């Protein structure tokens, strides 16, 4: 939001710029992220995610701030041929949402190639779950959740009847999809590590995976959540979800060596903190009325 009036107390002048503030770096988390919606509304995704990023990069340059940490995603590995996914893997996208992340990565690489003052770190998130341990901050998806853990959480608080498990015929330990779940607090710490790394003169446009390096199946995740919450999560086995990869988990070597960052929390902590948030806030930031 830009303030429209210039005053002694306002950092914003009448031109809408910030003449007295120096911005050291920007962490760009903003973006639409629902895969299914991106398939039905591709222009919305390209406009919001890509055009929004270009606008941000232009504004940053106008303010002489050329240090960026960007939230990319493991989605840019597409359906990986092998695991763990290393940062050098070939990139592909299987839906418009994934394409926006991939295109933004390419835009950042082009920008750095054009001007060596830019220092950019692209963080490829794996599957962020959990909540802040205080139980005060957590995920509150609008409408039906797309992702596994917000759905499990809604079933646990009585807002859903059963979890639909998408596919039990994968070649995995129990037939369900395997992912690299990472606690949101670890993810946040990864951003601090990336911000610190921006002062390394060797940084150009560099990529790091943020994951735990461990694969967990849907059923293992459900069992861990049942244990943490004491609630039974009824399951309904369905067919595979189109576009889902079988097994995705991160190689964490590069982040560990270069960012000096490593995830501290396991799936028990993720489920404990997610349940703490859910049980204290069964309707997220709203109320029963607001969710009707
Ligand atoms: N799953 C279910 N039932 C559900 C929801 C999910 O069985 O109701 C399964 C999926 O089939 C998958 C696993 O749970 O095996 C995880 O699914 P999510 O939707 O939680 O996460 P994805 O791995 O599909 O996607 C996540 C992010 C994307 C990102 C991608 C990168 O949500 O933004 O990781 O790989 F692009």
Automatic annotation (TrEMBL):
* Pathway noted in the entry: Carbohydrate metabolism; galactose metabolism
Catalysed conversion reaction: UDP-alpha-D-glucose = UDP-alpha-D-galactose
Q: Which cofactor does it need?
A: NAD(+)
Q: Which Gene3D superfamilies match?
A: NAD(P)-binding Rossmann-like Domain, UDP-galactose 4-epimerase, domain 1
Q: Please list the residue ranges annotated as the NAD(P)-binding domain.
A: 21-273
Q: Which Pfam families match?
A: GDP_Man_Dehyd (PF16363)
Q: Which domain of life is it from?
A: Eukaryota
Which InterPro entries does the UniProt entry name for this protein?
NAD(P)-bd_dom, NAD(P)-bd_dom_sf, UDP_G4E
- Give the EC number: 5.1.3.-
Keyword Isomerase carried by entry: yes
Key word NAD present in the record? Answer: yes
Task: Check the record and name the SUPFAM superfamilies matching this protein.
Answer: NAD(P)-binding Rossmann-fold domains
Q: CDD domains, per this entry?
A: UDP_G4E_1_SDR_e (cd05247)
Q: Which UniProt keywords apply?
A: Carbohydrate metabolism, Isomerase, NAD
User: What is the similarity comment for this entry?
Assistant: Belongs to the NAD(P)-dependent epimerase/dehydratase family.
- Entry protein name: UDP-glucose 4-epimerase
Organism, by scientific name, is Gossypium hirsutum (Upland cotton)
Q: What is the lineage of its organism?
A: Eukaryota, Viridiplantae, Streptophyta, Embryophyta, Tracheophyta
